[in-house]
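Morning F.,

Quick status update on the modeling queue. The single chain you submitted on Monday has been processed. Sequence for confirmation:
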Amino acid sequence: MAAHSSIEAITARIVERSKPHREAYLDRVRRAASRGPHRSTLSCGNLAHGFAVCSPAEKEALAGDVIPNLGIITAYNDMLSAHQPYETFPSIIREAAREASGIAQVAGGVPAMCDGVTQGQPGMELSLFSRDAIAMAAGIGLSHNMFDAAVFLGICDKIVPGLVIAALSFGHLPSVFIPAGPMTSGLPNDEKSRIRQLYAEGKVGRAELLNAESKSYHGPGTCTFYGTANSNQMLMEIMGFHLPGASFVNPGTPLREALTREAAKRALAITALGNEFTPAGEMIDERSVVNGVVGLHATGGSTNHTLHLVAMARAAGIHLTWQDISDLSDVVPLLARVYPNGLADVNHFHAAGGMGFLIKQLLKQGLLHDDVRTVFGHGLEAYTVEAKLDAQGQVVREPVPEESGDKKVLSAIETPFQSTGGLKMLTGNLGKAVIKISAVKPERHIVEAPAVVFNGQQELQDAFKRGELNKDFIAVVRFQGPKANGMPELHRLTPPLGVLQDRGFKVALVTDGRMSGASGKVPAAIHITPEASDGGAIAKIKDGDIVRLDAVAGTLEVLVDAAEFAARAPAVVDLSDNEFGMGRELFSAFRRNVGHADQGASVFA
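Structure tokens below.
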């Protein structure tokens, strides 16, 4: 059916706003694509270096510009559970390429850090910037100009957005993203959260906490809660970068390997050497971006994507804004309950019908653009399926059932969990911020209370341990933006604030930092821009100022006389401790040049 009128209107304004940037981008993509197989531009010396390790038959094929060569960009390392399965993928892809009369080479590797390991540590201050470093590293790999298409092996928080920016920067090449899947279910997420809160209260020790965490994160695959990593996988499927049904199949299974083989062969089928040329820069357009935002709202996805989707879209000349994201939230219902906005994990979501069921429900009411290009062909209707294996071990796809397999996890469009999506923009005299409300109870959508100001998350934790926060208050945690210290996730604030809320106090968080894809039950106005280190009003707040966070009206205000507030000098904080150690000195240029959060917090123009 035709797209919903509000979806059409928001898409149309994005198209109009983006027009000069998008037209210039498409002109660059088309000029690059018009040059044909790019190996033809290489000198004999260039080409000899590029295929020096290939077999004689492969050298002959690559020299002739008629056999497609597939570049593999991999984020493999064996410290990240989500990326460890990628160790064997290049050999699988090479074999599949040979079966399809093509060739595949690893074009390059990119860094992949784990936010779970670096939470609350100095290394977290590199996390957001790693996205842009990944884009640049992937660009270096593809710059050898040896390839007719690319496949990208990446899953987690900043890795996929960085790889998407790279794919769109090389928009003349077809690009297929290949997931590795989530780990099998371990300790239930609500039990893990309960033990974290007990630890924060001092009621259990480190041994009990480590035991619980180890039972949650226990093997190969993505963490099973619905944070940024699994939001990434949802986005890649609903935006058309994945093959249908690929996102949430567990690693180490026959279906997972078959999907990987199929993805490699599909990438070779959509090069300029065939009849289905699908360059990534042409495939991804304003409709694809809107579909991604709709999917984020319908699933209660990660707040980090209010940064990443903006940056990803800009790589294709598309100017998405927080207002667009917020307005889409008003018309897209919440259809999934996956932790932290429910008790289920992504395996339960997948078993209930997963992406196929979700896309089918959204298409029913025109909440997605069906008329888009994908790596699988034309239209999202082809994604309303479940991937399975036939008797010969080949991937087959069957229509998803008419009803959810678990209505507590995945709902029909007629009976949503709530009528609006999970992310909203807040505006007021503190600037702009975003809030995720899908896991916040309605009675906590408005909080008005005195501010307690902290210049770092450790200060809040110390105050909690001293028993100073047993009261109604709004925690203002500032100097955590990208210019200050790289905008780390402040995930360690969740347990103490959760404890205080459970004790009956009205609490909320206001910060220019991030709270991660695991933003939960405590109302949190995050990503405030301008940030404290960039002259933002958050630097003027004092202890005791009344702050009002209103997620219903979409406002964030400090209730201080306007003249008095304007006359205040902003606080100045010594940030020199953030400049060195754990590699932070290598990213000083990023901190100096990073853009505002509402523009994607990127170092790229």
